[in-house]
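Box 3.1. Reading complex inputs
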Amino acid sequence: MSSLQRLQSLYPWIKTPLVVGAPMRLIALADMAVELSKAGGIGFIGAGTDVSDLESHVQKAQLLLQALPTPLASRSKTLPIGLGFINWGASLPDSIDIIKKYSPAAVWFFAPTSTTSLLEWTRSTRAASPDTQVWVQVGSVKEALDTVKTVTPDVLVVQGTDAGGHGLVRGASLITLLPEVQDAVRAAIVEQGGGEPPIFIAAGGIVEKRGAAAAHVLGADGVVLGTRLLASHEANIARGYQQEIIRASDGGQSTVRTKVYDNLRRTTGWAETHNARGVINRSYHDAISGMDEERNKQLYDEETKKGDAGWGTHARMTTYAGSGVGLVKEVKSVEDIVREIREGVEEVLGR
Ligand SMILES: Cc1cc2nc3c(=O)[nH]c(=O)nc-3n(C[C@H](O)[C@H](O)[C@H](O)COP(=O)(O)O)c2cc1C
């Protein structure tokens, strides 16, 4: 069976070329996830490191899905959306309770503390909800091989260094990473005695039809949108943040991978291997100019009281975004974004 046929049978509501919504912590919640799936993509709720309110988001998604005039066809009664976990922080038992109770079509794992921990998450998920597919986001050939050898993921999300938010400190763009990962994974599977390779989904820097088409040319079976969806009506995001996404351009220059924003926001706990890409602002300039971290934190805390005015190059609130941010020009509905990309890939590839 081809990867596309597999996708279609596992997620019967989708339309291809497949567009996936990244499980962005605090931002991709029920509205975004359900709209993504409704538009023929796969939507994920981003639980992140804290699953204490995840159940309420899943329940809301369930209600939204039940209210659709035509229910989305799903396999074995799984919920036609996914749930994304940042494994190093999320509680395994609490997450598994939710996975068991709601049977999402997929779970998305990211940044586990070790392959042993990833194996525990995967085994527990498969035991709790056998029809839930296990997606793992990786950012290097090594991570991809370790993952494939340890847990046999159903889907590998290959994240290039252009990605917004968290990822590996040392990375490569999708243009080199994806083909090398695919070659290495396929060779490893042959070496292990054969079997079906995972489905490969590309993430990082894909914002519009040309990037999405390029990812398919590189060998992706589908694409992830993160930064593009920050400028959607369904994003749970402050207006100031969203406007900064629309304003920023030339992402290679205007964004940076750094730990500065995690430190200011006290979202620490990430391994040394990971940092996050965001738009350069005043707190970043101050940090690299040598400002005392406590002072920078204090200024950050004061900025949080300014509301939307707290975002911008001369302000201090964090604008996590990928280097494709300059291609995001307008706030649109998830439905329009997904349709434009899907149809655009067909157009660019001349099918
Ligand atoms: C604001 C923001 C928050 C994110 N949060 C998460 C997260 O909680 N879990 C995760 O696995 N990935 C997260 N990511 C990374 C995405 O999964 C994805 O790899 C990335 O957005 C793709 O690159 P792009 O932003 O260029 O589209 C986040 C990305 C952004 C921009």
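In summary: The chain has two domains: 3-236+328-348, 239-325.
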